[in-house]
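Lecture notes, continued. The same structure-token format from the folding unit now serves as the input rather than the output. Read the line below as a description of shape only.
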């Protein structure tokens, strides 16, 4: 039996009060719909059908940015008017094989675990429909599961249509169902919109099938409702974000990372760590970040697409992106690594040092207040405070090459393109250019001759 997935993503999301379609709001910096698509993919379906409607083009544009393996199995159906969830599923059915099992997911429920969905799909067997329910002490807003006296599902009643007794029911509809395509094709047509919202409710499918044969509908109760709760408002979006972060933090702890506070870390991508790594509070990890063993990340660091080797220490408030840091390096506090750097073992980059597209060799140190852009720096080089690579002439960028064991004195400018031979000492305050011909181990110094005037009368403010 092949599985096809339908993801409903046509709704406006009125309660978000936003110009952005609801399913494009982000959890961990990734659209909710993308989370749902990735989860669906884990079930190995034949196709993933996304029903778009409200601001369809924006949703399609997002889908077009997804990786190839997802795009290959995605089809898009358009729901011109948002007439309800039942109508939305009906819009996708023409592209679904009548012999498939169909899993329906909502684009506004981003944290559903694939494992739970696999169990739901497996439980369908020869039934027409299986509904995933959950128990919550705060069922307000959700469809309620109404069972008959034998415990079978009788129908699902939406909040707005429920009477007082039904409102007290704590078993709710998560919105996730799996059904035979053939059953959907025959029953969806029968759904009416004579309800409080004037919509064609997908939830009425359960009552229709059950009224013919109660044993044809299965209910599966999910162990935890929280992670299946849909996002309808910014309050719920924030709640789901925290929930997601809590899950990420727990996974890190289980893998042996020490977190100063699991409630104060944000992972917006994929973070992997070796053993005995410590992460202090308020750090943000974006994209793919790999930390080795015994790495220390200080408070408030923002790290995006970086690889940091064993034993390296990143001190507080360091911001780094698209860079590779090898072993036992010490970076920060307040360092900034823009894209394209490789820092070899034991490199030190200190406070207010900015690096871009630079290679710093083994043991090289840039302790304070420098800009190193487009630089290839050898090993054991000392970059003095205030050193600037002048890599830009207003139109083009050029490279600075510095040999091993060079000592660059404080407040020097290296006007690129320029090469400094190995072992050279550049005296403080030097403006080094390609025109200064030199050999290895030379001292280079450019300084204006000092002028001294004795007993100088400094201008004074007039006394009132
Ligand atoms: C729905 C369920 C409710 C369940 C809850 C769980 C129905 C009628 N109700 O209510 O029983 O407890 O989810 O979160 O199904 N959508 C479309 N086209 C439409 C309408 C909606 O694509 O015409 C999409 C939305 O984009 C959204 C999903 O369907 O992704 C759910 O719609 P929403 O309006 O949020 O339904 P709820 O009121 O939350
Ligand atoms: Ca919803």
């Amino acid at each position: 039996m092949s599985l096809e997935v339908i993801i409903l993503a046509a709704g406006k999301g009125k309660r978000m009060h936003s110009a952005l379609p609801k399913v494009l709001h982000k959890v961990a910096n990734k659209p909710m719909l993308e989370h749902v698509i990735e989860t669906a993919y884990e079930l190995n379906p034949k196709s993933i059908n996304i029903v778009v409607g409200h601001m369809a083009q924006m949703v399609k544009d997002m889908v077009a940015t997804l990786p190839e393996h997802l795009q290959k199995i995605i089809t898009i159906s358009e729901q011109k008017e948002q007439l309800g969830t039942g109508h939305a599923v009906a819009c996708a059915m023409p592209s679904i094989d009548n012999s498939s099992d169909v899993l329906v997911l909502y684009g506004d429920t981003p944290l559903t675990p694939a494992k739970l969905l696999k169990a739901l799909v497996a439980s369908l067997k020869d039934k027409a429909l299986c509904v995933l329910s959950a128990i919550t002490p705060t069922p307000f807003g959700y469809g309620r599961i109404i069972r008959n006296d034998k415990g079978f599902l009788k129908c699902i009643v939406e909040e707005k249509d429920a009477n007082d007794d039904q409102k007290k029911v704590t078993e709710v509809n998560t919105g996730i169902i799996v059904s035979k395509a053939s059953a959907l094709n025959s029953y969806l047509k029968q759904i009416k919109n004579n309800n409080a919202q004037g919509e064609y409710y997908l939830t009425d499918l359960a009552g229709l099938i059950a009224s013919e044969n109660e044993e044809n509908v299965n209910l599966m109760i999910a162990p935890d409702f929280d992670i299946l709760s849909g996002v309808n408002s910014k309050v719920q979006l924030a709640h789901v974000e925290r929930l997601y972060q809590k899950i990420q933090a727990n996974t890190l702890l289980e893998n042996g990372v020490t977190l100063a506070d699991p409630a104060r870390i944000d992972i917006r991508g994929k973070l992997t760590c070796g053993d005995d790594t410590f992460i202090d509070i308020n750090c943000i990890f974006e994209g793919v970040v790999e930390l080795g063993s015994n790495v220390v990340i200080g408070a408030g660091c923002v790290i995006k697409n970086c690889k940091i080797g064993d034993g390296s220490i990143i001190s507080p408030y360091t911001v780094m992106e698209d860079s590779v840091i090898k072993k036992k390096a010490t970076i920060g506090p307040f360092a900034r690594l823009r894209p394209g750097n490789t820092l070899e073992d034991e490199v030190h980059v200190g406070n207010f040092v900015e690096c871009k597209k630079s290679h710093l060799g083994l043991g090289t140190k840039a302790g304070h207040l420098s800009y190193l852009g487009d630089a290839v720096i050898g090993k054991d080089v000392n970059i003095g405070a205030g050193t600037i690579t002048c890599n830009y002439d207003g139109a083009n960028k050029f490279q600075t090459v510095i040999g091993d064991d060079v000592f660059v004195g404080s407040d020097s400018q290296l006007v690129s393109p320029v090469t400094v031979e190995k072992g050279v000492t550049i005296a403080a305050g030097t403006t080094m250019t390609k025109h200064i011909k030199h050999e290895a181990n030379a001292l280079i110094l450019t300084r204006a001759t000092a002028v001294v005037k004795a007993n100088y009368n400094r201008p004074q403010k007039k006394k009132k």
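Point for the exam: The pocket of uridine-diphosphate-N-acetylglucosamine (ligand 1) is lined by residues 8-11, 22-23, 51, 53, 79, 82-85, 87-88, 106-108, 142-143, 156, 158, 172-175, 201-203, 230, 232 (CB under 6 Å).
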